[in-house]
Give the backbone structure.
Amino acid sequence: MSPPQLFISIARMHHISNPSKFRRLKRFAMQSNVSGIVKTGKLGVLVFDGEKESVKTFLEHARGLRYLDFHHVDTKPFTNDRGRRIADAKLGLSEVEDMNAMVSILDSIGEKDWFRSQMKMTKGIIISVISWQWSSYEDCFVRRIAIWQDGTAAGSAHGLPEGHAATVHFLLSFQWIGSTDLVLAQVRDVTRN
């Protein structure tokens, strides 16, 4: 008898920071029989695998926690060509330090390109910073930033309040705004110049 078909899924939300809600999320993953990784903080991201019904059940439970801006990004059959699974098939969610660690794990199982494509982290040129917030993660409009395949970015953030400048080192996600050359970006590792 062949093993059951596995599926891999991505979900994202504005943030994962509430400790009790995070404990419930991890408990739901165990109860739903999924194995996955989670990046907490602002821009919370879940990537997990399991049988179809397990994935569906976990997504329903996660949505029920009413995380701000919760999105089920994508689910697809997990071919598992490399013989590895997310979090080494350990049931539940394993926390990763940052997006770099998440991408590295997904690269090891052959799912990096799919993840980056679904999360809109593809290579390209981004175009001026129109607004800025100084916090651990910033939401901003970016212009003239080069984005590399690994998610790092090179360039300066311009258009900040007078006397401020910054260098963007890592881009979490971005989306084009209408038909213009502006994008709304979420960035990490910003150095004030």
Notes: Residues 124-192 form one domain.
